Amino acid sequence: MAGDSIGLLFRVTNWGESHGAGLGVVVAGVPPGITILPADIQKDLDARRPGQNRFTTSRQEKDVIKILSGIENNETTGTPILLMIENHDHRPKDYKNIETVFRPSHADFTYTAKYGLRSKSGGGRSSARLTAGSVAAGAIAKQVLTHAFATDILAYVKSIATTCSPYDTTAVLREDVLANPIKTTDTKTAEKMIALIDTARDNGDSLGGIIECRITNVPVGLGEPIYDKLDADLAKAILAINACKGFELGSGFKGTQLRGSEHNDAFIKTDHLSAPNNSSSKKTPPKKSTSTETASDPTTAAYQLTQNIRTKTNHSGGIQGGISNGMPIVFRAAFKPTATILQKQQTVTETHKPTTFQAQGRHDPCVLPRAVPIVEAMAAIVLCDHFLRHRGQVGHFYTS
Amino acid sequence: MAGDSIGLLFRVTNWGESHGAGLGVVVAGVPPGITILPADIQKDLDARRPGQNRFTTSRQEKDVIKILSGIENNETTGTPILLMIENHDHRPKDYKNIETVFRPSHADFTYTAKYGLRSKSGGGRSSARLTAGSVAAGAIAKQVLTHAFATDILAYVKSIATTCSPYDTTAVLREDVLANPIKTTDTKTAEKMIALIDTARDNGDSLGGIIECRITNVPVGLGEPIYDKLDADLAKAILAINACKGFELGSGFKGTQLRGSEHNDAFIKTDHLSAPNNSSSKKTPPKKSTSTETASDPTTAAYQLTQNIRTKTNHSGGIQGGISNGMPIVFRAAFKPTATILQKQQTVTETHKPTTFQAQGRHDPCVLPRAVPIVEAMAAIVLCDHFLRHRGQVGHFYTS
Amino acid sequence: MAGDSIGLLFRVTNWGESHGAGLGVVVAGVPPGITILPADIQKDLDARRPGQNRFTTSRQEKDVIKILSGIENNETTGTPILLMIENHDHRPKDYKNIETVFRPSHADFTYTAKYGLRSKSGGGRSSARLTAGSVAAGAIAKQVLTHAFATDILAYVKSIATTCSPYDTTAVLREDVLANPIKTTDTKTAEKMIALIDTARDNGDSLGGIIECRITNVPVGLGEPIYDKLDADLAKAILAINACKGFELGSGFKGTQLRGSEHNDAFIKTDHLSAPNNSSSKKTPPKKSTSTETASDPTTAAYQLTQNIRTKTNHSGGIQGGISNGMPIVFRAAFKPTATILQKQQTVTETHKPTTFQAQGRHDPCVLPRAVPIVEAMAAIVLCDHFLRHRGQVGHFYTS
Amino acid sequence: MAGDSIGLLFRVTNWGESHGAGLGVVVAGVPPGITILPADIQKDLDARRPGQNRFTTSRQEKDVIKILSGIENNETTGTPILLMIENHDHRPKDYKNIETVFRPSHADFTYTAKYGLRSKSGGGRSSARLTAGSVAAGAIAKQVLTHAFATDILAYVKSIATTCSPYDTTAVLREDVLANPIKTTDTKTAEKMIALIDTARDNGDSLGGIIECRITNVPVGLGEPIYDKLDADLAKAILAINACKGFELGSGFKGTQLRGSEHNDAFIKTDHLSAPNNSSSKKTPPKKSTSTETASDPTTAAYQLTQNIRTKTNHSGGIQGGISNGMPIVFRAAFKPTATILQKQQTVTETHKPTTFQAQGRHDPCVLPRAVPIVEAMAAIVLCDHFLRHRGQVGHFYTS
Prior knowledge:
Four copies of one chain form a homotetramer. Chain A is α+β, with helices and mostly antiparallel strands. Chain A is built from eight helices and 18 strands. In chain A, the strands form six sheets. Chain A has a five-stranded antiparallel β-sheet with strand order 1-2-3-7-4. In chain A, strands 9-8-10-16-11 form a five-stranded antiparallel β-sheet. In chain A, strand 14 (about 320) and strand 15 (about 325) form a beta hairpin. In chain A, helix 1 crosses helix 8 (about 370-395). Chain A is globular, with a radius of gyration of 21 Å. Chains A and B meet through strand 1, helix 2, helix 6, strand 11 and helix 7 of A and strand 1, helix 2, helix 6, strand 11 and helix 7 of B.
């Protein structure tokens, strides 16, 4: 139960370093009989990998997924899945100048303090490259959720620095997000953000921002009070992403300024209309199961969001009392400006002598676009784990 | 590992309901030989309990702590501590009118959907009253941390609705926080907040706000990447508090608007000056240990914050790469306006018929002042757990 | 996750001491809607409690179960169940003479060494009295298993010292076991054992023995390789019982002397005849569920042991490759002679001075009869936990 | 927390299949600064691998260890260690004839029943080949224990079928065990066992037996009552080994026939003479640490077994009340005869039709010699985990 694992039943264990032989995850506890194609995983890895375009670091990592166990004939066996991504583009020379100093706002100092040593070639275990393993695990979680509930997870860049998308979350479509390199809600906002990032790069500086995530077709009943509330576990998973400094659900920090009479979400009766999906085109049906599940299996799609109660507003963000209520889950994650900048900064050496440090090499001026698939992956892992946990304790899902 | 437990080595298991026989926690994994007086726990319970003054609900619960195991002669034995608080002030009649409706933005609907049933007399397991157990467990965690590192945790109300304290976190003193009924930073801000709350109560409405927490004398090296980062586990623990909708560390959401060159925290060398404490008077030394620990024990106060590296600014909020860096940990928690209001609201019954609901009885118009000790307790539990986990893996603490 | 808890989804946390205010368990993760009457728990506690007859210690503990949370109207709510048994019959004076010596083969020395202190009034946390909490938790697990699969767990004394029951496990009936005070297989064997125990008591000596357990109506598919095999988790749970020194499944140690051609269990096809139950009278149907489960719920009795494959012999003891195969689970547990004897023994004091020790007070000359319900309880906890875990990951149970 | 992981702080997660790309473990939570040479791991793998001599299967697997993360410059970094062993010698054709039948006393049936599918090429996840990962993880645990306490773990074959070594555990020397291919206590016993195995092989049959394990230089205080007792966790780890059907500690099942006055272990005072080691030559000092630990670190060798209390006899097997008492830990494990035999056996097909099955290919007639390093490895993992857990909770080790 070291900190390298997350999830109780859907259990992801992350291993590897940024500049060693490779990195990856073991995903244990996956339901058997789920179809997983390498392309399902590769797609998300490609969205995270560096070198996609000028808005991400030019470091070229192919990040090719290798499945070494747990999947036979594109189907999960119920046993641990070992996913590996080999490191090819080391360039340790890029990191020569950081060997003896603590880079400001990096983990050099804290890793050294905790473990008594640290990797000298790049971030080692503290590198954001390790999130590739999380993304791969999240791709499997997404397949499980799609299979069972047609759950759909869509993250996108909401703001960069002070430039914020004008679109409300309910108006955001996946096709629009995929259509621009910033992974924001629309082309016009993307253009403004591109200009900001270009300026930051020219100045050897970096930018932060906010990613928003909207999850639809969430089964009712996920989350385990009073500590493993669904929003609590989401907050943890999101804060575990490198550079993340904040999490808010639904109305979040702004909601603290409302009165209760404004904030409460009235319950209303609907005519079995399911909540709108994140895709503009009609909902993709869940993949046909090759398992022995029948239509009477309460965990299949047939039992999903058929309840006829929803809320008029969604200030709660889809979770009430720590348990999903069937409305879309909406949360936001704050990402600080990347710590690595090309300007000269004050710091100390490992032997505690004052010095200055100026980064060189390949670095993202803004981490947001590449963090989008990571946010989706972490959310998927949490939801999938709570799906299995709920099924374990209660055995069925609410319908009405 | 149901959701009613938190912590890996310092393990808190919460039990009980708001209107049953009682509630409490089992705290397992506590180091032996730590002095715990009932008053240490009662003090924090009193800060949380209702009926303290007109700014909290007038429901009168004495919330007297009972220690049933694990402490002998005011000293921990290393075995599980059972803490119990009996329920005395039931008044189930107050809850007659909620038996058949789903109260808006409460957990009535989600608990019913998850478990197929729910408590009819009050919130049952979803009640904020359950946080009394967390507060009691947190009081024990605080003693462990005080004993080992003189760690000091201070939470206070930063804002209510749009009224925000003008004081910077480094200027907040415990004695000032304790001196006003709102538990905010100063008397003048308290007066403004009192006026707001009085108005809300008159309108049968409720208010939200933000609590800030500052933790000093934090040992370097706490937190376990890549998933059990210290900030990730703090976020989870804080989001698990009823009505909490957001968490941010250090610069948080505002920090996303800074450039990297502004945000990075430069490392500087100090002359062994420890970080300023939350108390204005001089630092309270850790309680004298009655255990067999000697001065050479690396976990005692002698080994604490003696490192001579700190950061010039603290945008990181005391945690870098998921590991504490010895600077004060600073975070904020967003609390939505209380769901229970005395106005008529739209909702549905358990049999899905539209209806209206208007709360009666005793309710907080603003939960913030009573949430202050809960925030401290949850933070203490997380820090104490990571203290033991770090000591388990590494066996010593960083000094320089 | 301190050692005071067992089970992953069906999670039992034990608290209390032998001579403090009381003891008990929190049982978390229990499925909602299961009928639990206090008498279901009390029955097993009565079978374990001291003072039942002259073959057990004359210490009189009523061991009355108190249910403080998690059960409303005799039905589980899905939230933590706090079970408490108050201590009434302290007699601390009986323990005066053990305050300063380490009793041979007791835990006085190891508890002192581990924690730096130990309870001076009786065994504290090391007392077998703590198993009362396990028995209470096991009673809940039994109800869950009965409800879902009509699973039946029967333990009995197989041998005391060198006196062994001549009956094969398949011939043992619950009514015969309950009909004799030793809880062995038949009256005649019981008489021999009574004579042995009487002699040991007269000599101020103690006896050990072997308990056998047979579990029928076990669903196929429980157990999680490669480490949480069902037999591995059973072994752990049984070894955790005080005085237990060994565990063996099916053919066990004797089976090491067979050749593979003798030991292998041939698979055969049956005509849907379920395995024989432990009761002589016809099988008790599972209690009627008050939950919303329907006949199509794969976890109800309708889906139980209907497969038509079984094994000709059962050397495997019902578990193959760590997973239950639907045959009766049969295991044996070795219990050493009770450490407390009334003879003078060599030992040392807490300050390491040689001395002698002679126990006084109320003590079992043979722990076996009272350990029978403990063995059943620990087995029930393990099976129930694996039931929920299997349902979580796979969602259905095998039928053919 | 799926069943593929073991250990709470020293956390081993096993992945892979017998006939896929490879297999291995992630070992997380390892203390930093421990020297681990590939040869340390390879040595134990070589002792387990097939094809060593005619007494083990002739299947030729080189089982070369690959370290992909967590160790830099032969030193642990404190981050997850990925160990991999590639599969080279597949020969799937050997398994053609098992594709449609359930082999008697194999896991074919139970895996199919649990997961709804199973690997068609060999045992897949149920193969004993998976224990190679456990052995590799155990080699790391051994290094940690050697580093901290000079703990020494020695397992050996005690009996095969009815042929039992005449040597008492205290007389067994590592050099004698290593000197014979059966890994039993002496050459003469080995010769008898060889004759037995040769006969079994000629008959297409198989044999079982008992492995004994003796662990010296065990620190006092390991184990966490009341469920994670050291012996309970050892029992679990040992029962998790393929073909293991029983575990007993110290006097074990035979001890049930003794009277308490015979069985109790008297405490005596010694003159700081440490318990005898498993090696005939003088005790190997622990490897020099390259970490920053100093002599005053209570977890280093300086603090090890210096207490001057021991027991006259060791019927307890080194554990009392679930906590190590500093005496050698002695336990035995029962292994059934290998399920795979070359004789024709009765069984059913996957479609439940009666048939016969006769194994072909390469198979061990007796698994015992190769199980010796597995037993050592599982014991090392348990001890190492409890070492870190004890250090986490209590922070120091007992000395007197």
